[in-house]
Design a protein that fits this description.
104 residues; mainly beta
Length: 104
């Protein structure tokens, strides 16, 4: 089976009380206030094989702080015209935003 490119990537965040939500796209930089605690969800649609996604805060890889949920989607008329792709969602329900300084 041939590889299927990613169709969309969405990053959503909201305050823990649900009073303010934001959606980010187009690979633009995202800026938050230090010490904010927010709910984050990243959804990647339309990839085959399973997409590899990493979440960074500055240069720090924080992917392990998110819970992955992967689903194989079967679209189309079975069995011959069915398109297979993955939907991956990374979630952190209470992500604490902080910046750590390292000395050289």
């Amino acid at each position: 089976m041939r590889a299927v490119p990613v169709r969309s990537v969405q990053l959503m965040s909201e305050t823990l009380d649900g009073s303010r939500a934001e959606m980010y796209a187009d690979q633009r930089p995202v800026v938050f206030n230090e010490s904010d605690v927010r709910r984050f969800r990243c959804v990647v649609n339309g990839s085959y094989p399973t997409p590899e996604v990493a979440v960074y805060v500055g240069d720090d890889d924080v992917t392990d702080q998110f819970v992955p949920d992967v689903e194989l989607v079967r679209d189309g008329v079975p069995p011959y015209l069915r398109e297979l792709y993955y939907r991956l969602q990374l979630t952190n329900d209470a992500f604490f935003i902080r910046h750590s300084l390292t000395s050289i």
